[in-house]
Amino acid sequence: MLVVMEHGAPNADVDRVVSVIEEMGYQARPMPGAQRTAIGLVGNDGRVDASRIAALPGVAQIIHVTQPYKQVSREWRSENTVVTIAPGVAFGDVDVPIIGGPCSVESEQQILASARIVRESGGTALRGGAFKPRSSPYSFQGLGKKGLELLALARRETGLAIVTEAMDDEGAHLVAEVADCIQIGARNMQNYSLLKSVGKIRKPVLLKRGMAATITDFLLSAEYILAEGNDRVILCERGVRSFDPAARNMLDLTAIPIVHRLSHLPIIADPSHGTGLRDKVTPMARAALAAGADGLLIEMHPDPDRALSDGAQSLYPAEFRSLVEELRAVALAIGRRVTPPDAADNGRARDTIDSGTARVRAGSY
Ligand code: PEP
Ligand code: MN
């Protein structure tokens, strides 16, 4: 349930609503907004008797959240949530950051070369798994802690934000020491103890859609993280299993406008795992951006033919470079902008945009 306060309601009225909610045995989450403050009520199993709250001074409206996920829903928060993972790298605003890099961190030379290519091509975040969830226990499992150290080195050298995966609670704490954003992979989307763990860590989280997850399942998984008090969640569409073996997965681009309507959280697209095939990555990346993706995650390897994981879907450096170039043009055509690398250094990105473009995007849902 959501209690919307009148425009300009004094703090004392807000505090009163919070204490009444707490007296009733629930938790209150005040959310000051641009226009007015809303107070979310959590901890209820069913419908709450709102009459006591509705009668309090300053209360304008009571909204019963109809979706099974609450804090993730647009009913709960009508404005877009912008998740900033590092200075100048924000998801959910007009600018669209590009996350690039190899599937796995393999060596110092490989990750530093990747980082330089991402940076020079116009990406603003580096991806690369140190802990790898592989379908086979005999496949390369990642360098672990050593991989995290190499990612930290790559950030020191290039200034790129770091996005890397955690597979369990212990790994999440290790990843949190280095990463700007903790990735939860498709195979762990419904690992609820891991979701609770990253909810408590309070670092931005990139939550990938499970291979067989409905959009409701996906948003309920995000709700686990928000329910622990961490609302810095970026969703990622990475394709679902289909009946057709022509591609590794079926990239569900319809999920982007659906999620934008149902939730205030940003959603990005991963056409690399979404297709599994290098030559399909560029066309689907263009399409994802055109469909409203708030960012892109692209696998790129300095030498894909020798990659220890996902080489077949990793772009060659030159392909990555031209993709970013093309994405700049697509973004411009829909009133957005690929986050420029210099913005990641000095946080200027948002000041240099005509505020009109933000309206174009808001109206496009
Ligand atoms: C990855 O990003 O390398 C990865 C393992 O992705 P997913 O969890 O979507 O399969
Ligand atoms: Mn991969």
Helical percentage:
25-40%
Q: Give the overall shape.
A: elongated
Question: Major sheet: order of its strands?
Answer: 14-13-12-11-10-9-8-15
Count of DSSP H/I helices = 13
Radius of gyration: 21 Å
Strand composition percent: 15-25%
Largest sheet descriptor: 8 strands, parallel
Ions, cofactors and other ligands present here are:
phosphoenolpyruvate, manganese (II) ion
Strand elements, count: 16
Taking all residues together, what is the mean pLDDT? 92
Terminal Cα separation, in Å?
24 Å
List keywords for this structure.
single chain; about 375 residues; alpha/beta; 8-stranded parallel sheet; 13 helices; 16 strands; about 35% helix; binds phosphoenolpyruvate; binds manganese (II) ion
Describe this structure in words.
It contains 13 helices and 16 strands. The protein is an alpha/beta fold and 365 residues long. Strands 14-13-12-11-10-9-8-15 form an eight-stranded parallel β-sheet. Strands 2-3-1-4 form a four-stranded antiparallel β-sheet, with helices on one face. α3 packs parallel to α11, α6 crosses α7 and α10 packs parallel to α11. The C terminus is likely disordered. The structure holds phosphoenolpyruvate and manganese (II) ion. Manganese (II) ion (MN) binds next to loops.
